[in-house]
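Incident log, structure service

09:12 report received: a user says their structure output differs between two submissions of the same chain.
09:20 pulled the input from the user's history:
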Amino acid sequence: MCCNTKCWLIAGSVIGGLLAILGGILIPVGDIVIKGEIDKEAVIEEGTIAYDNWIVPGSSVYRQFWIYQVLNPDDIINGGKPKLQQKGPYTYLVRYAPKYNVTQNNNNTVTFYQPNVAAFQRDMSIGPDSDTYTVLNLAVAAAPGMISNVFLSIVNQAIKSSNSSLFQTRSVKEVLWGYRDPFLEQIPDFIIKDKMTGVFYPYNETNDGPYVVYNGKDDISKVAKITRYNRESTLSYWNDDYCDMINGTDAASFPPFVDKNAPLYFFSSEICRSIYAVFEKEYTLEGIKLSRFVLPKFALASPYDNPDNHCFCKDQLISRNCNASGVLDLRACQGGKPIFLSLPHFLYASEFLLESLDGLSPNVEEHQTYVDVEPTTGFTMHFAKRLQVNVYFNRTSKIDVLSNLLSEFMFPVVWLNETATIGKDKANEFKSSVTTPMNALGIIQIVFICLGIVLFLSCSITLCVRSRKERRNGKKV
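09:34 re-ran on a clean worker, output below:
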């Protein structure tokens, strides 16, 4: 029969060992529990966390615009180098209307339309959107690229009769959302029927879609990934299987358990292509650990540096035999309008574009596009989509206001920053429903393992010491 102390030490060693084993068992079990809960809440169907933030973004989404004011319009027309100055931001609330015509399909997909809306935010802007600036005349600059050479004499006469020029004074609201152009009104309908123009015309009260995305019910690794856009599984702009792929999500969320060693793919109808971001760093926002993925320079590189981009090169003359970087030709998806997209201030673009004008100064901090993702759920908590809209035009003797230009121009009109950041209330809600339970389970695992090890070792060591003393005392007797 053993003494009470010895029995307690043996019991302590056994209990300690069991606690340590239980803590170890809870690690894989806990991971299974967490994965099961995330798999359930990440599905796009009514009643889940993902659905509530999918229908209407949980954080306000804003678009900030900077207009490029032209400082020397007459000098440019007479062969001078453009001097530009950005004016902004002018801020609009977007993505505040819920997705509509949402339909859950039998093949574990969901169909929806995304409404296009924009509400001006005076308190977040440098002035009212009625502010006026001297800007590029979009219609005049784009006309030679859209109209056959046969009709350029009509274009030239229309410019004169409407008292138009290559530059004009317009309000921010007109430049962004559209206005009825006097030059276009002089053009016969059989050449150009729509007399409205604007960088984003038409936008308000229109919609984007329909989209079809996986809801994740059968395979959570596909949740939110776009399978069809405008009723097609591929695009038709680039005449190439690779460039016409619709790949990834819309970047509002990604499948859970994000791997920072793999790129995140997303599709944007505004840039008419799929693209990707790569991991840059981890940081904490409102107490939530996030992974930042950035749009890399390589994604916008010339086909010479990135062969995958060969199919995005649509015009070897403009792209300098496809050696130009950082500019995307959107004419195929913009009805022939000579619209070219880049990052703001020609970030990551070829030097000759930046050298062709004065007033631009690219820097990564202000002009880079990125998305910050909570890696366990795949939810986007912060992002900045930054784009610049440029119009291409060149010298032509058939139009007077273009006849003396210095050369061709990739002319910046406006750049935007579409951004959203999770607020404190939504962050606390996320932490209470997701982060806190996960952390609590992790703490329990660590406490069980540490307490078990300490209890096992202390009791075992004490038991050994007592046994040795008892043997030593027994020999002396």
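09:41 both user submissions now match this output. Likely a transient worker issue. Closing.
09:42 reviewer note: The CA atoms of residues 316 and 322 lie 5 Å apart. Residues 60-422 form one domain.
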